[in-house]
Structure formats: structure tokens, C-alpha cells
Amino acid sequence: MSTVPNIVQYQGSKRLLAPQILRHMPQRFARLVEPFAGMASMTFAAASEKRCDAFWVNDLNAPLVDIVRMATEQPQQLLATYRCVWQAQFCWPDGHIAHFYHVRERFNNGEKTPEHMLYLIARCVKGAVRYGRDGQFNQSPDKRRHGTRPEKLEHNLRTIATLLGGRAQFSALDYREVLAACRPGDVVYMDPPYQGVCGTRDQRYLAGVDFDEFAAALETLNRRGVDFLVSYDGACGEKSYGRELPEVLDCSKVLLRAGLSTQALLLGKKEITREALYISHNIRRNLAMPQTLHPSPVQAELFGAAA
Ligand SMILES: C[S@@+](CC[C@H](N)C(=O)[O-])C[C@H]1O[C@@H](n2cnc3c(N)ncnc32)[C@H](O)[C@@H]1O
């Protein structure tokens, strides 16, 4: 696969797993829909492989979607405005850390522009977007980095505009509204917030997703003949995270190899982290995959880790 473009390092991004996930998608389909798009890694990956000619990028967090929209429709403008914000950190009277807090405050006070969002992601700790209970962006700056250089961004923005230009629609809706508008021929790739956190809210995101409501929404996709894939938690070493999606959905589950766990490495252990991918029965039938909700480790290797 050609190199997949990336706008900015974003925690939770599926960029590195994208080649493994693509193996479980049909070779060609009408439209890729990403209801929980984040930084839209799977959209970029599918577009790079020319799997389809139409894309729908959605995320409840509107400034995130605005970044991807601007990258696609007005890359030069996004680059120019980002460059302006990025360069200001070097001449800010109180230094670049104070500049980050200044931009964060402007963002939280209503200036939720794509360039502010992009700068905050590029400069914050681990590219990890965090919101407080009051809905305010509250992540701290990474004191050792200045964030993605505009020169580096430029190349990727150009590639994204070429790949998606004139082929993508954008929205900032709740995922249920998006699913209600999906149709047979679409492939819906879903990467909802991590469910291994209590309740329905994950502080990494603006909102959470209720497990039962999510499962019910998937059931309606099955009934309407819409193909889907879901990334949903996984396992590290012997330990599994998150609830299984209900068997009634009749999905296949494969475990993708996501790399060595940094948590375990800190404790001196070498453990492989695996991320679960659920594949709807229609896709599985067409790709002639075995029906298995709980694959053996061998099957998991076969499907997920052959890279
Ligand atoms: C794990 S991230 C997706 C990362 C993405 N796959 C990528 O590669 O960048 C989950 C996303 O779901 C979004 N989200 C949370 N609740 C949502 C909802 N109810 N409807 C739509 N999007 C939602 C969050 O804003 C977040 O960007």
C-alpha cells in the first residue's frame, strides 16, 4: 500500500492499523462512511487504495471535522492559517508554552477554528485530545515539542486534497443520525470511543457512546443490509478489555496486532496489544471468511497479524 497521508499525530488514530483493517473490507464498494472519524485515517487509507469513490466523514467534535474538511477543500488556506498560529509561538513574549495556553483559551472561549484545533492537537501531550466535564479542552502542552512543522503538513494536505477533493461529504452529527442515512453498498467503518471506561463518557472525547444503544444501532444496519466493521477494544497479553458485541449481531471478530504494550514494557514485560475488529456477516460472506465470534489465537494470527 502506498504511504497513507496523515494530518497530525492523534491519539486513538487507526493509521498504523489501517492496512490490517483494509484486508477485511471489500475490494470495491460505493462509499466509505466513518461516523466516528477523528482524524479520518481509514478514509485516507481507503482512498489511497482506491477502494471507493465517495466518502462521508463525520465526528461529533465539529472542529475535528473542520480540519479534515479544510484539508480536502481548502488546503492552502488551512496551511496559511496554521502557519500563522504555529509561527507565533516563537515570538510570543512569555514563550511557547504560554502561547499554547493562550490559543487554548481562545479556543475554549469560542474561537473553535480548524487552525486552533490543529495547533492544539499538534502541540499537546501525545496528540491526546482531552475535554473536562464542562466541555473545555483541558490537555496540557508537550513542553519538548513545537508541533508539526507547516512544511511537513503541506505535502500531506496536498495529497489529501487530491485523494478526496470533490468526493467527500462532511458532518458533525451524532453517529445514530449518520447510520440512519446509510444504505446498501456503503461500508461503514466505526471506531467509537474506548468503552473500557466507566459509564458512557470517555474524557478523551466530547461525548461517549452507550453500549446497548450502539448494539441496537448495529442491529438495524444488519436488518437494512448495510455492511459495517467496528473497532472495539481488545486484549493485552492474557487480559481482555471491554464487552463483546452481542452474538445476535452475527459478526466475526478478529484480533489485530497493534504492537507491544508500552504499559507492560514499563513493567519489564513484553506483551502484544491486540485490537478487536468486528466484521458484519454480509462482508464476511462475500470475503468467504469463517464464521467465528471468538477466534482461536491461530485464527487471530491468520487474520490479523500476517503483516
Ligand atoms: C477513537 S476516536 C476515532 C479515531 C479515528 N478512527 C482516527 O483514526 O483518527 C473516536 C471518535 O468518536 C467521536 N465521537 C464520540 N462520540 C460520538 C458520537 N456520539 N457520535 C459521533 N462521534 C462521536 C470522538 O469525537 C472521537 O473523535
**Which H/E pattern describes the elements?**
HEHEHHHHHEHEHEEEHEHH
Count of helical stretches: 12
What about the largest sheet? 8 strands, mixed
Based on CA atoms alone, the radius of gyration comes out at: 19 Å
Mean pLDDT across the residues is 87
First-residue to last-residue Cα separation: 12 Å
CATH class term of the largest domain? Alpha Beta
Given as residue ranges, the uncertain stretches (5+ residues, pLDDT < 50) are 197-201, 291-307
What shape does the CA trace take? globular
How many domain units?
A: 2
Descriptive report:
By secondary structure, the protein is of the alpha/beta class. It has 12 helices and 8 strands. Strands 1, 2, 3, 4, 5, 6, 7 and 8 form an 8-stranded mixed β-sheet that branches. Strand 1, helix 2 and strand 2 (54-58) form a beta-alpha-beta unit. The longest helix has 15 residues, at 150-164. The structure holds S-adenosylmethionine (SAM). S-adenosylmethionine binds next to loops.
List keywords for this structure.
Adenine-specific Methyltransferase, domain 2; 12 helices; alpha/beta; binds S-adenosylmethionine; 8-stranded mixed β-sheet; 37% helix; disordered C terminus; Rossmann fold
Q: What's the structural blueprint in terms of helices and strands?
A:
Blueprint: H1 18-22, E1 31-34, H2 41-48, E2 54-58, H3 62-73, H4 75-88, H5 96-108, H6 114-123, H7 150-164, E3 168-171, H8 175-180, E4 186-190, H9 211-223, E5 227-236, E6 239-241, E7 252-260, H10 262-266, E8 272-279, H11 281-286, H12 297-304
Parallel strand pairs: 1-2, 1-4, 2-3, 4-5
Antiparallel strand pairs: 5-6, 5-8, 7-8
Helix pairs in contact: 3-4, 3-6, 4-6, 4-7, 5-6
Bound molecules: S-adenosylmethionine (SAM).
S-adenosylmethionine binds next to loops.
